Amino acid sequence: MKASLLLLLGALSAPAAWALDANDVRGGWETTVGGTQHIYDFEIRGDQVTGIYCTDCSDATTLAFVIGKLGANGLRFVVDHVRDDGSTSYQDHVTARIEGDHLAVTGQAGGPAGGTFHWAMHKDPRGPAPFGGVAVSAVLPQPGAPAANAAAYGAHGQEPPPMRAPTRAAGPRGGGFRMPPYQQPGPWEQITPAQLLGVWYAGTGPGKQHFIIRRLGNRLLGMVCGPCDNPYTMAALDTFEIRGDTLTFRIHHEDFGLGTLPFYNLITAHLGRDELRIISAVANNLPLQQQAFAHFSFSLLGPVSFEATAVH
After folding, report:
1. Strand 298-304 to strand 198-202: parallel, antiparallel, or no bridges (unpaired)?
2. What is the pTM of this model?
């Protein structure tokens, strides 16, 4: 009897284990208040929560970083708003939980405005935008997720489309256009963190890719988005490592993508003048023969200063 009582008391006094399904809350959520869009993108591993927060997300000055915990009933986290040198300007203290088809968020804002806020945040009804001409239709079946996309997500994720060998256009006599071979802008440089800070761009138009790299303390962190008003088309960047002239980092896909979720792409890049050359983007969730972006190459141009992207 005494032993049973001790076990009961021990169970009551023990901290509650995290029980909420991480898949319900991971990834991007949005709301618009007073004409300003607010976006969180959560990366969850076990009970550890990291991620990003931004308002007009193409404005790199609004990018801030999330760190917190997943608990039995929801998320509890702080948001670090950073200065250009990586120091914390101020913090928001926030809790969030699932209520019906939305994420109920309550927070105490730091900074000049301060005050409390209460938001009902939702998944973007548009779903992920096409990427590289491929319709990305695998999303987690979360509360409020687009039904057409959620229906395409199975127990093991969406298989990528069959990879086909690239076709070469005809030359001038055939009336086609042949892409010239890639030429480096110069020798690859020895990379320093300071050279990476800012915004790097790939492509043009509203769907162009924005790679934003900032500093939090002595770490590099960031995000990629494009278009930048849709939480499905953004992802956190982390695990930056520099070895001489080689840079590696990860792009985290939490709530959409090809294959099982969540996963990350491991990026390898080199720097030459104003060009960051991505030479491979290998997804860790698929066998090598199915990795749609293995050994895929493209260039980012920059960096543009954070302030130059600010919405005035």
Report:
1. antiparallel
2. 0.85
